[in-house]
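WARN retry 2 of 3 for item q-0093 after timeout on previous attempt; input resubmitted unchanged.
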Amino acid sequence: MKLKYAQVIGLNTDQKAAQTIFNSQDEENAFLAILQLGCDDAFTRGRQTLIEAADFYFDFDGSPAQKLVATFEETQKKFQDAESQLLLAAISGKVLYLIAQGEVAAFLKREGKISDLLSLGSPKQLISGFLNEMDKVLLSTKSFSLELGEDLSKSLDTTPEEFEQDLSDKVGTLDSASGEMAALLIETQKTESSEGVGLATEDQSTAQVSEDEIPEAEVSTKAPRSWPSIKLATIILSKIFQKFPSSGRSRLVLAVILIVIIGAGIGLKFIKDSNAKQETVFKNALTEAENNLNTAKSLQSLNPSEARAKLESAKSNLNKATAIKPKDSRAQKLKEQIESESDSILQQFQTQNFPEFLDLNLIKKDFQATNLTLSGGNLLLLDPIQKSLVSINLDKKSNQIIAGTDQIGEGLKAALSDSLAFVYSKDKGVLKIDITNQKVTTVAKPDENWGQVITLMPFSSNVYLLDSSKNKIWKYVPTAGGYSEKREYLTSGTEVDLSKAVAMQIDSAIYALTSDGQILKFLRGAKDNFTYEGLDKGVKDPKSFFVSSDSENLYVLDSGNQRLLILTKTGSYKGQIEGEKFGSATDLVVDEKGKKVYLLEGSKIYSVDLK
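OK item q-0093 returned
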């Protein structure tokens, strides 16, 4: 039985969400669900649970009724700490199965009449019955059906496309019902193969039956068509055999002919059986690939790592299908779809557009910066050769030389925090410079206990130095008279190797990037969780990275792979942009609000749009 469906989902929040899923393995089997959930991270948690429920249903061994009950029980276990309303349904052949708990609704419209399906049973009780052609089944949250009210029947008279368009527009404006609106409309359609097949009556379709009474799918026990022809040939040959002379030679000839014919029939049956098995494998693999692709698309923003895994499964299942039928039009169409949508699913983009934001020679001839920082809408750059410190306003592109040799001496690294610039100078120590009036204050004088200070970063009035040779992060705290003596940021029990560190960033936690691609994360002096997850390949020769208290994500300048990686602050993959400049740039900052990435390459700053 062919099915056509539409879904409507209203506004959702992180605390309350209503969602749907329709997952079809083939024309005969489908899994459907409505979930309304109230808890922290409700949307992401709910979406992931529905996907897992569909996988559980199709993987579970048993009848459709057993599969649905087991899936219902398994899903409920996941929401013992949350407020949930759950409706699960399955369609197998012409039979609809339902099981529900909470404020949900299910209606059947047939020949102009509407039946409330859940009124036939009690909560958590399995309900089943037959479907007819052109039936319409509505599964929804209770709030959705109440919102329809007297328009329920009228809404079910529309096509699935009209239903989805009209009601999506309507519920999408209901702020007061955020997290409460979700619905699936299923329409059974006419199929050529259904002619002459007796279908259920209206009473049967809404009958509540026990699990033992639920009809299983019909399995054909008829012999293949090759057998009657073999039997007929055998009878004819037997009669001929009786009329032939009784000599051994004649009988031998007839016996050989008979054996050949019977063997041909058996061979034909074997070929047909083999072809039927191959056809089943092909259909299952192709359907699974289509489902994998649809799941990957639904997860591309919610869970990019899982989306990547589902996309790989789609490719794998498609390869199984095309190995059987390389030229099948449906398989070829799916292959084209996967190829065209892969980059979008993986949030993987390519660009050749790196417009020049600013030529630093316009500020000072032969100006060559080594690092770049961003704060308060301003960029800060230091040229350690010409010993010049420059600030640039992003909006106006106006620039200002803040300090020179007299102020910063052998300045090597600089960082910006609002209107305060901090410089690490080999001969003058750590300096603080007010960019509004160029006033210079000493934070710390040169210290003989410093080793190889590779960078410094200010945060919340404190100043931090990463000392790679001493394996330390030094911390300076403001006092009434200036700044304290250096303190060790890392706790005594924290073991870490900073010898390969190339950059440091702070967003309340401290992050250190190493030359081999590791990112070390610390919180209150102890190691914190950061693990790459979902990358298609490892980070290679990174030059820098960016994260701040104002940014949602963490960005890695993966120079060896000529790409910008976009990650969560714990390391999970969210996306990437590939382009030549990501391989040659030495530093970067990201303006998420303005959706721009700024890249430093020698005497020039380039920009690229943030996808």
